[in-house]
Amino acid sequence: MTDVHAGAVHHEETPLTVGVVAESGADERRVALVPKAVASLIGQGLAVVVEPGAGARALLPDASYIAAGATTGDAWSADVVLKVAPPSDAEVARLRRGQTLIGHLAPRDAENQIAALTGAGVQAFAVEAIPRISRAQAMDALSSQANVAGYKAVLVAASESTRFFPMLTTAAGTVKPATVLVLGVGVAGLQALATARRLGARTTGYDVRPEVADQVRSVGASWLDLEIHAAGEGGYARELTAEERVQQQRALEKAIAASDVVITTALVPGRPAPRLVTAAAVEAMRPGSVVVDLAGETGGNCELTEPGQTVTRHGVTICSPMNLPATMPEHSSELYSKNLTALLELIITDSAVAPDFSDEILAAACVSRCLPADREMNEHV
């Protein structure tokens, strides 16, 4: 809008817009921003535009966003676009030079869209690349979503199991509690241990990083010590040597055979998931036992895993659910929304996209660094 008064031309300042797009994946029910967060951003002088139906699969109707102060429309044209899943080719084509994209961008996946985003002149921040340091905890989307996955993995196991989780004493006799072994005790693994214990199971955790033993014990679980230590960078485990893998496999097979439920969460960034549960280990388990493999997206921790499927082998049910956080979209979206709003506080200054790349969080998270369109034009004048 332009006003002319006393020969001067005044331009009404347009607020920075944040766009919330609808996810295109058939199984993706999360949304990047919930209405409560919309109200917070608008209170900071920003405008929020939501693609119609963006929150529908998370049970958040357009009306709830409008009530929070957002408008509905073309969220892909916003200055800052917020997303959950990595963009497709078609979605990258909807972005323009100078925009900022924030979401899961699969920076370690060879099939990612980062080169396309850079070529399109889009500045992009990958939530997977946020460093796991104390100051970044509020922005750590991997951890917030892993909490959901660990919780839901136990419910999947309990649903598939032919046995009770808790000890039951009845007139007909006593039923012993189920034994649950969790392999890989990062955020998802610790949540799985805590949830299984709440259901009454006897729980044991294992990881190649010995420093997490106290965390395992803190949630009431026992620690399985195989005397293999492989702590790596960024809170992840390093890849084991061939000798260590043989030693680990022999010791694990005994522990797996004695368990009613095995939940695996072990991942090594940029590499196929380590094989922790061999076919021989599955065959040694009692019929009716359950394996829930959360590493299916990178090949699986179990040798008999079929990613995205539930199969029965040697009388053992092997589940490899994909994208468990999307099966609990209400709370997953709420947690993810808080992660993104915390990150936006670093990226946006005085209602403008102005990331300070001397900040280690932004330096690590930015996977496509491009100048906003207006600055780029000025620098070429």
TrEMBL record:
<keyword id="KW-0547">Nucleotide-binding</keyword>
<dbReference type="GO" id="GO:0008750">
    <property type="term" value="F:proton-translocating NAD(P)+ transhydrogenase activity"/>
</dbReference>
<keyword id="KW-1278">Translocase</keyword>
<dbReference type="GO" id="GO:0005886">
    <property type="term" value="C:plasma membrane"/>
</dbReference>
<dbReference type="InterPro" id="IPR036291">
    <property type="entry name" value="NAD(P)-bd_dom_sf"/>
</dbReference>
<dbReference type="GO" id="GO:0006740">
    <property type="term" value="P:NADPH regeneration"/>
</dbReference>
<feature type="domain" description="Alanine dehydrogenase/pyridine nucleotide transhydrogenase NAD(H)-binding">
    <location>
        <begin position="158"/>
        <end position="320"/>
    </location>
</feature>
<keyword id="KW-0520">NAD</keyword>
<keyword id="KW-0521">NADP</keyword>
<dbReference type="InterPro" id="IPR007886">
    <property type="entry name" value="AlaDH/PNT_N"/>
</dbReference>
<comment type="function">
    <text>The transhydrogenation between NADH and NADP is coupled to respiration and ATP hydrolysis and functions as a proton pump across the membrane.</text>
</comment>
<dbReference type="GO" id="GO:0050661">
    <property type="term" value="F:NADP binding"/>
</dbReference>
<dbReference type="Pfam" id="PF01262">
    <property type="entry name" value="AlaDh_PNT_C"/>
</dbReference>
<dbReference type="InterPro" id="IPR007698">
    <property type="entry name" value="AlaDH/PNT_NAD(H)-bd"/>
</dbReference>
<dbReference type="Pfam" id="PF05222">
    <property type="entry name" value="AlaDh_PNT_N"/>
</dbReference>
<feature type="domain" description="Alanine dehydrogenase/pyridine nucleotide transhydrogenase N-terminal">
    <location>
        <begin position="19"/>
        <end position="149"/>
    </location>
</feature>
<protein>
    <recommendedName>
        <fullName>NAD(P) transhydrogenase subunit alpha part 1</fullName>
        <ecNumber>7.1.1.1</ecNumber>
    </recommendedName>
</protein>
